[in-house]
Write a structure and sequence with these properties.
With 248 residues, this protein is α/β, with parallel strands linked by helices. It has ten helices and ten strands. The protein has helices at 3-10, 23-33, 43-52, 65-81, 96-108, 118-123, 141-155, 190-204, 208-227, 235-245, and strands spanning 13-17, 36-39, 55-59, 85-88, 113-117, 131-132, 135-136, 158-162, 166-169, 174-177. Helix 8 (190-204) crosses helix 9 and helix 9 packs across helix 10.
């Protein structure tokens, strides 16, 4: 049974501490995929929510100082329970606050997967990369492979660099995924939803590298199918068909 099929069978509950801009899209996308979303960033319940979840996603997109404390509580509880924790360090290189926050998260929480664009992941190992706000340029494939290897080794995690070609590494092996469509770069939250789907796959799987690769590959293939629909005329019409394809 594939990890995608396992998600549909087990319906893992994923605790999202995520970007406020994308909560609705992320929740609908995960539901379409087969997982169950819960969105909760309150400090007073962060640990309790992580106690009942099958996986935890931490996305720093609209993080506040108050949110950071909730991130730490949920991440530590997930580590105690040995359930997967995924970090999406959105725009980590953009401000000193984000840099300090991600450093603290990496110091105090063990992440199963760290997922981001080239600039975000490169920053984690001190590699300069061209960025604009939270967006990043793609780069040379060999360089991306080396960055993914370095991040995975340094943080004992699965590193996922998303882009025209997605690069995934556990510190020893490197896998590349070429499925996807440029339309995904034109909608807010495409990367955030991918983090949710990866977390759901990790929650039911038993091979983080293979499960992450399958999640990323499936996501790109869903976009490829959606954009071919005759009803798609742009990003507004792409989104509902993409959500439909996440159910296939």
């Amino acid at each position: 049974m594939s990890v995608i099929e396992k998600v549909r069978e087990k319906n893992p509950l994923i605790h999202h501490l995520t970007n406020q801009v994308v909560m609705n899209f992320t929740a609908n996308g995960l539901l379409a995929f087969g997982g169950l979303p819960i969105m909760a960033k309150e400090q007073l319940e962060a640990s309790d929510m992580a106690s009942i979840a099958d996986g935890v996603l931490i996305n720093i997109g609209t993080m506040t100082q108050f949110d950071l404390e909730a991130f730490l509580l949920a991440g530590k509880k997930a580590n105690e329970r040995n359930i997967p924790v995924v970090l999406d360090p959105v725009g980590v290189a953009a401000t000193s606050f984000r840099k300090r926050a991600v450093t603290k998260l990496l110091d105090e929480v063990n992440f199963t997967v760290i997922k981001g664009n080239a600039g975000e992941i490169a920053h984690l190992v001190g590699v300069n990369w061209k960025t604009k706000g939270v967006e990043s340029a793609d780069g040379d494939r060999k360089q991306l492979e080396q960055i993914a290897l370095q991040v995975a080794k340094k943080h004992k995690t699965i590193a996922i660099i998303t882009g025209e070609v997605d690069v995934i590494s556990d510190g020893t092996v490197v896998k590349e995924n070429e499925s996807g469509h440029i339309m995904l770069t034109k909608i807010t939250g495409a990367g955030c939803l991918l983090g949710s789907i990866i977390t759901a796959c990790l929650a039911v799987g038993d091979n983080p590298l293979a499960d992450s690769f399958e999640a990323v590959s499936f996501y790109g293939e869903a976009a490829e199918r959606a954009v071919k629909h005759p009803g798609v005329n742009g990003t507004g019409t792409f989104i509902p068909y993409f959500l439909d394809e996440l159910q296939r």
